[in-house]
Design a protein that fits this description.
Radius of gyration: 17 Å
Distance between the termini: 28 Å
Oligomer: single chain
Strand content: under 5%
Helix content: 10-25%
Structural class: mainly alpha
């Protein structure tokens, strides 16, 4: 099974299609499933060659939101995070490229 969103993971657990799901979030309203935070995840920005490193190694969110971003579609953790934070900062999030699971390719030498 391929779960694209936290809701897909939750629904698969509810339906008995899986015994364990790993996701970025479980809504507090979802009391019929149990979610336990097992780790904090760091977000890493990948910049083009020759880009100056961010001061102190941290790229401010306000700067990140002004860049040509590559993200997943709405409903994915990173995209939803950027959209929420953009709304909070009154900045639109319009990714230059939207990547779905079907777009991922592996090339072997």
């Amino acid at each position: 099974m391929q779960a694209e969103t936290p809701e897909d993971v939750r629904d698969a657990i509810r339906a008995g299609e899986a015994e364990l799901g790993l996701t970025d979030e479980v809504e507090k309203a979802d009391r019929d499933v149990f979610g336990e935070l097992i780790l904090e995840q760091e977000m890493v920005a990948v910049l083009p060659p020759g880009s100056p490193p961010p001061p102190d190694g941290v790229l401010p969110l306000e700067t990140l939101l002004t860049m040509n971003l590559i993200t997943g579609p709405p409903g994915t953790a990173v995209r939803d995070f950027l959209t929420r934070e953009g709304a909070r900062l009154s900045q639109d999030v319009n990714p230059a490229v939207e990547v779905t699971h079907a777009d991922r390719r592996c090339t072997w030498p």
